[in-house]
Fold each of these.
Amino acid sequence: MDPKQLYQEVILDHNRKPRNYGRVENATHSAEGLNPLCGDHLWVSLRVADDTLAEIAFEGESCAICKASASMMTGAVKGKPVADADALVERFRTMVTGKADETQAKALGRLAVFAGIKDLPSRVKCAVLPWHTLHAALHQEAAATTEGDADPAAAR
Amino acid sequence: MNAPIRRPLPPATPLDVERVRRDFPILANVHPHGKPLVFLDSAASAQMPRPVLDRIVYYRTHEHANIHRGVHTLSQRATEAYEEARRKVQRFINAREDREVIFTSGTTDAVNLVANGFGRAFVGAGDEIVLTHLEHHANIVPWQMLCEDVGARLRVVPINDAGELDVAEYERLLSERTKLVAITHVSNALGTINPVREMVAMAHRRDIPVLVDGAQAVPHMAVDVQSLDCDFYCFSGHKMFGPTGIGVLFGKAALFERMRPYKGGGDMILSVSFEKTTYNVIPHKFEAGTPPIEGAIGLGAAIDYLGTIGMDRIAAHEHALLEYATASIETLPGVRILGTAREKAAVVSFVVQGVHPHDLGTLLDHEGVAVRTGHHCAQPVMTRFGVPATARASFAFYNTFAEVDALVAAVRKVQEMFA
């Protein structure tokens, strides 16, 4: 899917109507994500019960790619075991940096549409930020970024 | 007695843009996403015309060797071409002497040279450096690093809602503690042209030297460092249709003589023993190591090229583009232009309601339109206007009115997508 199609078919819909937007009351985990270089800034809060992500929400100011990625992420991990969410973070990251093959991408289900982001190398960080923030929340880190060592491009 | 102030004569013949465009192969060669390229990002880096490309190829095929070293034919040719480029720069900015022109790797390198060579020699604890809210990070961070090391502090001239400097406040900030003023000639993020000559005069009344960041000025207007009377003037080759990796630091000879070298190495010395090194004379004292020779020669060729077009014609065409672009973009609902100074270079920074600048940049690219999106290495300016980023269309003399129309149509298309 070319980037323009990606916008038209997926990103704009989630940008207009983000799912799970807001804050989880009685959150057990939360983290702040910031890309200082582009200004994407969001918060992920969640409640874990019985090793399962019972609730998750996000809020913040960001570009449409970041917001859509966050929106779809919350939908994908809600109700899932924490270990599955962790594994999904890594698989998503592998896909948007162009390192996943087609089968691996397909295994990501609806998230596979983000594979097209690899053709917009300057925007990969936007798509990855919510996932880094989720990872930080699950691992009790206060903040996440996609700069420096956490730069998805640096791992290529 | 002061000489009467002369208004610049209007250009005798306007610019033939279509003819000029044929000098820039890249404008015709590239079709992003199958669309004609509309290149509106010259403030980040401008394109290179054929005569500059040809000059670099000629240098590499007929003249290249290391300079100031060998007695053989090629070394002499390369040295002559390099020093001729220095004289071209001298004439271009009307410096008094060619030894007042130092080749650097760019504007950033030039500012760092002064921060180290001048700053470390003449700025101490409790001293102040005055700069402005419009500065590019390259004219902030070197001074911050200096301040941290020597215990000095920065004072910042505020701007108004139009993006113009508060000159009265600037004058108030100058004191006996001020050791240097560092100001941009033209704001890269907003396009504001600052009253540099007036500001230099104010600083000089207190014997304070002034550094001017001219990176965004030299491609667009005639610059005369003697008329400005600034003490240092910095700019980059690649923003004025020359190569990357080359820039210029102009400085008054008397100041250069008193400054410490910034980098040590070959070419900046007269003699070296393990006990003592005697530094070379200016400008060589500040040009350690093999310089970007083809960069300097390419920059000289870019200056020649600008001369054939004429800075007055360039300025007139760009001003017309700016007025047309401003008026056209203003007609778009939900679009806000940042930077509405009375004196402006051909830069239009804007934000579109409901569309993040990075999404806008990606989608404009799909229409063939290249604009810069982000904070433009001027985060204090973004903070001042309460935005994380803007889209910036910046124009050069090779841009057309039709390209302004293409930009406006593309923005409208993105707005419809996001509606």
Amino acid sequence: MDESEIISRCLSGEIEAFEMLVTKYQTNLLALSWSILRNREEAKDVTQEVFIQSFINLNSFDRAKSFKNWLYSIAYRRCLDRKRKEKSSIHFIDKMRKQEKLFDDDKNEKKRIEDSDIFSPILRKLNEKERTVISLKMNEGYSEKEIAQVLGCAESTARVLFFNAKKKLKKMLMREKNV
Amino acid sequence: MCRLYKLLYKLFPVKRFRSILIERHFSVCPSCQKETEIESYLKDMLAAPIWIAKEESIWPLIREKLYSQRKKQIKAEKTLKPFFFKKWKWAAVGLVLVVSIGVVLFVHTNFKKESAEAEALFKDTPRVVIKYAEIEGKKARPYIYQTPEISFIWFSEVKNNGG
């Protein structure tokens, strides 16, 4: 079924039709959220929220534009919100950790490492925007124009962001590999 | 050296020639080899982890939430509906407002008219003024009720309360 047709059915209140869109974009959204948040559970939560929000606000979606990009832009904003909240609660959590020694438990620590990406600690050194740009460009093969649509910025900004992020990554990798 | 190859690669339009050129260069240039190596490492690093592809569909959760949200919405609408969502009720409210405003205006203008007429009549009628009254040698209090047509006047004794 055509995507536009599915959207029309959703707009007429048919919740079941939305399943096709969820199935189609779940992996992409999870990948993007994970690339920004680097946390499995949070990425799943955000993906869920994005789908629900998109269904509720479907009437505000401009049908002339790409639905995938629209979903990505919602996901990007949600992830940034999460990060912002996380930052503000870090101080509180640190206090809690000290008081209750939550992370003394080996099992907890193990799970935490499994959930985080031990494969690429370098990526953590990039900020959320840079991670998003890199992920969209390298995983999705997005053009600067599409990236700009997702981030809600100018095309030139997206280009500069990608260039800088890639440069940063290469530099870090070179340093790590002692090239 | 790398720049020269890049330039050649851009200048020559034949694809096969391009690939031969670049492959040969890659096989001998350590700097380009490192660069491609890093490029491929980057791609591996950025590739989505396996769990994402293996992740179960989140549709059941989304479906549940969407339905519960719809239920809430319907419930909220129902509670508001008896008054707010029927057009004829709005029309009725409007009509009542218009009628009541009309009545108020009518009463107000009529009242003004009547009082103006009465005032005009009183202006032409001579007024009765009693300066002093006595009943059996004692001071009396006069009462006057006057209309344009008729005047009633009566007196009563002033009671002494011992003050």
